[in-house]
Amino acid sequence: MILVTFSVILSVVVLNLHHRTPSTHIMPIWVRKAFIDFLPKYIGMERPEQDESVERGEESGEDTPMRSYNGRSPGGEYFFRKINPDLVLPWRGGCESTVYLQRHPDGYCLILPPNLKSAIAAVTYMAEQLKKQDVDDTMTGDWQFIALVVDRLFLWLFVIITTLGTLAMFLDASFNYTPDQPFP
């Protein structure tokens, strides 16, 4: 019963570590050094490299030949279609806002129309958010790897303690001796 209780408690600890994110927990430096850099070497774990999967995917993609249909490569038909210019440039007829290039003593200054400024600001905001998301995903991956390391550490501790406890019970078999007078 004690082993089952410890097993459940340790599972809860591992799940708590697995589901941590940068927005809920800040990873201390000692945790990173101990559980990402130091312990995995000694318990037989290796962190998978993310670049390897991308490289493998590219290598397998280079080996497959491109198929063509009626002399055209896939996706090539999009280059042959004529695009409706009204859909691409809806402001084509009356565009008062143009881009100006002004000269200043320090160099040149590009003056953009308000709609183009807002579009650049939106694209910049999306790029910053994607960078933050990449950093958050990396940190979440670090927490998940720490959970894997702790789970493996608990597994080895559980196996060692269970084995030693079982051996101690079998080797200390003093209760197996028959008493001198079994029925007084």
Observed structural traits:
single chain, 184 residues, mainly alpha, two-stranded antiparallel sheet, transmembrane, Neuro_actylchol_rec, transmembrane helix, Neurotrans-gated_channel_TM, signal
Structural class: mainly alpha
What's the arrangement of strands in the largest beta sheet?
A: 1-2
Radius of gyration, in Å, reads 33 Å
Helix coverage percent:
55-70%
Count of extended strands = 2
**H and E order:** HHHHEEH
- Shape descriptor: rod-shaped
Strand content: 5-15%
Total of DSSP H or I helical runs spanning 4+ residues: 5
Distance between the termini: 36 Å
Average pLDDT confidence is 76
Q: Largest sheet, described in full? A: 2 strands, antiparallel
Low-confidence stretches: 52-63, 75-80, 87-94
Report on the structure:
This protein is mainly alpha-helical and 184 residues long. Helix 1 packs antiparallel against helix 5 and helix 2 crosses helix 5. It starts with a helix and ends in a 13-residue tail after the last helix.
How do you describe this structure in short?
By secondary structure, this protein is mainly alpha-helical.
Give me the secondary-structure topology.
Layout: H1 2-18, H2 29-42, H3 50-63, H4 85-88, E1 100-104, E2 107-111, H5 114-171
Antiparallel strand pairs: 1-2
Helix pairs in contact: 1-5, 2-5
